[in-house]
Specification:
This protein is of the alpha+beta class and 189 residues long. The chain contains three helices and eight strands, in the order ββαββββββαα. The chain is elongated and about 70 Å long. Bound molecules: zinc ion (2 copies).
């Protein structure tokens, strides 16, 4: 049965006849995904099986594969990656939105269509790395001049002591292990 690309809205009455399988690029406006500083590359691919559970809830199982572009948290270069999620979600008419947890979503008993996108978006956001890095050991941007240190060195020197800390130090009683600061390479004499 090929009904073209799956739509984000699934008519719930279709489930009365048995499980519904949806496969292919999910049709939805890019803006509808609303992923803040993450951008989608191409259409997210879904391969889902959706069925009634017998207790009035709807179960969704399958896979979501998304190509995304994020900014490297250190140097701001674009980082592309593919995120693949195995899903097993429940849409329950007996809970309210405030009772939703991971993999458990409220199903408004008054609606005739299930909108797949909010749940898929939520699962995707949970799966995305918080700290995308363009490479292990990315050297980031110089905080003084903005040079990308992966590409160039700059002559900026970051002083090991900042006078603003002195005022703070006077207020805080010195602790024996506060001075160790291991491995920051600040060359303090
Ligand atoms: Zn980077
Ligand atoms: Zn610099």
């Amino acid at each position: 049965m090929n009904m073209g690309f799956p739509d984000r809205l699934l008519a719930l009455e279709r489930l009365a006849a048995g499980p519904v399988e949806l496969s292919g690029p999910l049709r939805a406006d890019r803006e509808a995904w609303d992923l803040d500083d993450v951008s989608l590359e191409g259409d997210p691919l879904i391969d889902l099986r959706i069925e009634e559970t017998g207790d009035g809830a709807v179960r969704l199982r399958g896979r979501l594969v998304v190509d995304v572009e994020q900014e490297c948290r250190r140097c701001l270069d674009p980082v592309r990656s593919q995120v693949g999620l195995d899903l097993d979600l429940r849409f329950d008419p007996n809970i309210g939105p405030e009772e939703e947890t991971e993999a458990l979503y409220a199903l408004d008993p008054k609606v005739a269509e299930l909108d797949l996108l909010p749940a898929l978006r939520e699962e995707l956001l949970l799966a995305l790395p918080d700290f995308a890095l363009c490479r292990d050991g990315c050297r980031g941007l110089c905080p003084l001049c903005g040079t990308n240190r992966n590409e160039d060195d700059c002559d900026c020197r970051i002083e090991a002591t900042d006078p603003r800390w002195d005022a703070l130090r006077e207020k805080i009683p010195s602790e024996p292990d506060a001075a160790t600061g291991a491995g920051d390479g600040s060359g303090d004499d």
